[in-house]
Amino acid sequence: TIGNITAQQHGNVYSDAYARAFLEAIQSTEAQGRVFEEAELLTNYQTNTGLSRQLYQVAKLIRARDGRAAERDFFFVSIGGWDMHSMLANGLNNRFAEIDGALRGFVAEMEAQQIWDSVVLATESEFARTLDSNGGGR
Fold this sequence. Notes:
138 residues, DUF1501
């Protein structure tokens, strides 16, 4: 077991320090996992898209901020599927609808937690082409 491995004295200061750090990391991870599991959201949060599932996890982490002793956090979520070469209008409508629904749920939860005034949302987009053609116009 991990307890047996980390309790063993290795006779090498580096091995002993590594074993202590490893045990502390395991204990910290388990404690943080318990805090996260106990965090209950205040709204009926819908997670029917990839983006809404990501923001759900962010909302849970924010809800657990006191138990995590977090003064400030930074989270990153992403949504792909923007490189559209056909059916552009339909594709954009689907992407925008996914973002709209996910953000509505997230904002409602942040307002219920009374933390919305302390939340900043930022968007970033990257668009690049390779130097060599792939033969498909991309």
